[in-house]
Amino acid sequence: MAADTKERILSASGELFRRQGYEGTGLKQIVTAANVPFGSLYHFFPGGKEQLGAQAIRVSGGQFAQLGNAILDASPDIVSGVRDLFTGAARTIEASGYADACPIATVALEVSSSSEPMRQAAAEVFEGWFADLQQRFVAAGISPDRARELAVATLSLLEGAFIFSRATRSAQPVEIAGAGAVQMIELELGRLSER
Amino acid sequence: MAADTKERILSASGELFRRQGYEGTGLKQIVTAANVPFGSLYHFFPGGKEQLGAQAIRVSGGQFAQLGNAILDASPDIVSGVRDLFTGAARTIEASGYADACPIATVALEVSSSSEPMRQAAAEVFEGWFADLQQRFVAAGISPDRARELAVATLSLLEGAFIFSRATRSAQPVEIAGAGAVQMIELELGRLSER
DNA sequence: TCTACGCTAGATAGAACGCTCTAGCGTATC
DNA sequence: GATACGCTAGAGCGTTCTATCTAGCGTAGA
């Protein structure tokens, strides 16, 4: 049951951090939500809140990548894959009452000037996302350098739109950003086929 | 000297919130940084931290808009204006040790599910930014609807890239996002001139 | 059956939090 | 010179925070 407890802590942490941020979430709130005793938290995370935060970033970031990759895998091509990605994100954010968008963006911004271990965890997660998406663009025939630029731009559109959608309580920014990303990618693929 | 004290509180709050977020910044830290007595804070902001936070969002958001508009005014056309906007942001983020990017994004994400007055303040600031940029695209001949989409997409690119740049300690995401925004706008203007 | 140890369980310490309170300073007005 | 009031000044309230500590449960291996 040990592994189960640790997973419940990480799962509850992920959800709370995503919605309220790192500083806005107390350890007591986490153990209550996870339904685990307080002592267990420090048994599994002797490094305290910071260690828990860093690990939660990696786990939540990894799950988000898995979800994204599953959507991209299920789509016939990269263009409709990216379109599905943004559409799915828009539906999720709506369905959660504009609470669930990026699992780590809030925490990443909060800690990037105050906790080096957590900042680094976020940086690694982001780099992983870049690499995943870059690889898919390369597979579609785009050069590695250009593919990385497209990946960074696509994910920037998504993350920025998440901020606006949560604050304005509207899925429109995510939808607009999705259309922009699709346009950018189609333009690139079009240039490719012209040669 | 009253106005000066209030301004110093808002200025210090803006800087601290931008770097550490809302929950991560204590009132004691604010009054220390602003060099004002604790009592003054509650004299000017009887609504407490939440009122201060909402006002800081509006003030900081307004200043950021002013800065952006000044850059756009100084540029010969909208395309180089947007380019200068992203370049300036990239230099600022570098110069601050990857601390100073968007003045309200961190707070907006933190509070959008926990404080309605602050969420609303952030939403109004963002809508103001959208309207400012939309107007400039309209002035360049783009239709209002399409201009709004371009404004939302451009600012999404900027905000998303800010997250990545702060976390990875590299200005590259902002630079890539800037190139993407410029490309989008040029494409739109090109279509316009083809008719 | 006994022992070891991973894990549960929660009380509690010590510090920091937001906020309230009273006292008094300084200036403008009569 | 006296009065009124905006503002300064900071002590201290109650709460909540992270983190530590000791005690005991439950299971696996000797």
What can you see in these coordinates?
- Two copies of one chain form a homodimer.
- Chain A has 195 residues and is mostly helical.
- Helices cover 81% and strands 0% of the residues of chain A.
- Chain A contains nine helices and no strands.
- In chain A, helix 1 packs across helix 2 (27-34), helix 1 (2-20) crosses helix 4 (48-74) and helix 5 (78-95) packs antiparallel against helix 9 (172-194).
- Chain A is elongated.
- In chain A, 49% of the residues are buried.
- The model of chain A has no long low-confidence stretch (mean pLDDT 97).
- At the A-B interface, helix 6, helix 7, helix 8 and helix 9 of A face helix 6, helix 7, helix 8 and helix 9 of B.
- Chain A binds a DNA duplex (30 and 30 nucleotides) through residues 1-2, 5, 26-28, 36-40, 42-44, 48-49.
